[in-house]
Amino acid sequence: DGLVVSEKVKSNNIDVKIPESELEAEEKGAEEERPKESDSNILDLSSDYPRDKHISIQRHLADLEKLADMREDERKPCPLCPEEKFKACYSHKLHRHLQNLHWKVSVEFEGYRMCICHLSCRPVKLNLVGDQTLSKMGAHYHCIVCSATIVRRTDMIGHINRHVNKGETESRFNTVRAPKSSYKVVKESATDVQVLPNHSTPQKTDSYFNPKMKLNRQLIFCALAVLAGERKPIECLDAFGATGIMGLQWAKHLRSSVKVTINDCNENSVTMIKENCHLNKMKVKLNIREEDHDETVGNGEENSDIIEVTKMDANVVMHLRSFDFIHLDPFGSSVNYLDSAFRNVRNLGIVSLTSTDISSLYAKAQHVALRHYGCNIVRTEYYKELAARTVIAAVTRAAARCNKGIEVLLAVALEHFVLVVVRVLRGPTPADDSAKKVRYLIHCQWCEERVFQKEGNMVEENTYQQLPCDCYGSMPGKTAVLLGPLWSGALFNTGFLRRMLLEAVQYGLDEAQSLLKTLVSEAECTTPKHFSNHGPGDENKQEECGVYIRTPNTSAESYLVHGKRKSEEVLRSTAKRQRPEHSAEHPPFYYNIHRHSIKGMNMPKLNKFLIYLSEAGYRVSRTHFDPMGVRTNAPLAQFKTVLRKYSTPTYVGAQAEGPVHLPGEIQLGEEVPAATVLKVQEAELAADDKPGVATAVFTQSYPAHCAAD
């Protein structure tokens, strides 16, 4: 057959005949490969130097010089530069070149130096100049761990730090997890979790854990506890587990009331979630793939201690299974997961989402908000509530596409996140009702007055007429902008918040208690004094941590009996009987008292101002969105009138706070003449130069008894 058997390859007792021509070609190729290795200078220069490192990675400067000394000529080239960049030279010049251009700008890592390389390792960029083609050679670094090429030195340092934080410090292309000694155990709400050293940097670690989000986790736990009291057992999903801290808290405290599923698409995160489950003495049920490939690991006796851990994309998990409670907390915006979340969520279930893309939601990157949420927003005094209504509008549209409506239970916007908790109402009618509450907002850029656009499809001739202010007539040009679409309905459910407050008191969540008290007061739009005030005949109120909470007539025993929850029917009827004190929804948006303060006047204390505004007949409360914000149904003109009435001039600020009697006996609700305000301002300017003039002008503007002070 023309074949000569020159070698036998024994594999599974089978003799393979190899042609002699192929063997000669292989031997010839092997001989050609040996000189290539010497030419490329990939040699074992020292016993401790690994072979898979690039030649630009050395321990000492002398090692780089040894690479150049292999050439016997007097003029020696640079091993890290091409001939057209650095020509061969004598050894003393080469030493200066290697030291100044390569060694001084190197990046050090575990005794090695990653020197800058000018060889054609990276893809070159071709620049066509006339008929000539010039190749642009770029300097770069070679990573000692993954052999990646990085251009900038600062980027190279950050790249190496990411490897260290992930525990990847060994040979390239091999990921080695960090040793146990480098883990840090963090305890929160009686739950222990292991985290990596850079656990608070989301883009640089697989196990993101932010201690600043503790309040967020407590609020979500309280919402889940309320739902667990309505029906049980409920299936809940933590779609982005990271360390698994949130799902572990659910399973550890609620026990048999919940069936917890923790998901993450990262393999290292799934491994850490399993270890954290064992750390908290929980059994793990693995579901790594979409097929029925389950595995139970751990020791346990009760079925309530089992936590299911899945390694899938969050959209895939929510498409495959139905849940009663879903929490979304991705890094950044959660709009990419809303359609999947509302696809299979059960009726009367709860979907909570935490958005951390505050740069776009807080109108710092308006183009990103338009891209992600389809909403036009600007920076306003009420930008945090604007962010919450923007997220709810996106949630409403996603739910409506699945023939579902929503009821907003909670909306919180703080420094680091925006949390929205909604209840899902299945059916086209709730979906239509919710979609009608997504409307545009007319915002005046001069006085920051705002009003939602009226419902209807007819185009109005003058949209500015809907605003209560008259800035359009008194100011030149266009004074208002159209923001939205935004959610125009209520942001809170008072009954649900009160039950969350009970759960926070029961489980000792101190940080959540103070915020929930503010939210209850804000939802009812009442002052703290009115919120805590009660008469002897109010038997359906009980005191929890200094706050009187409206409960059914059976007080706290209607929720807990001998440490156990009552049946589902009783709790549902209890929730139906529970109603907020005010039937009307809370007013939308709020005013910042500092933003509308009067120049040259000392404004009253915030709590006193709330009492003054309440005595004027308006609903008023503080808001968690802004510590100096006032939520009220009073128009901006009346808000300023009350503020002006109870403000005192700056130069008599030592006197007791009280109403400033305006000339002409101006009553509340009437506009203060502009001349009066101008005279006060003129008095301040005159006081700087001639104190006596200030007194004279002030005497002309105000009655004698006020000027005498």
TrEMBL record:
Protein name according to UniProt: tRNA (guanine(27)-N(2))-dimethyltransferase
Residue ranges, compositional bias (Basic and acidic residues): 26-39
Gene Ontology terms describing biological process: tRNA N2-guanine methylation
Gene3D superfamilies found in the cross-reference section: N2,N2-dimethylguanosine tRNA methyltransferase, C-terminal domain, Vaccinia Virus protein VP39
Localization per Swiss-Prot or TrEMBL: Nucleus, Nucleolus
GO cellular component: nucleolus
Catalytic activity: guanosine(27) in tRNA(Tyr) + 2 S-adenosyl-L-methionine = N(2)-dimethylguanosine(27) in tRNA(Tyr) + 2 S-adenosyl-L-homocysteine + 2 H(+)
Gene Ontology molecular function: tRNA (guanine) methyltransferase activity; tRNA binding; zinc ion binding
Annotated signal sequence range: none
A Pfam family that the UniProt record links to this protein: TRM
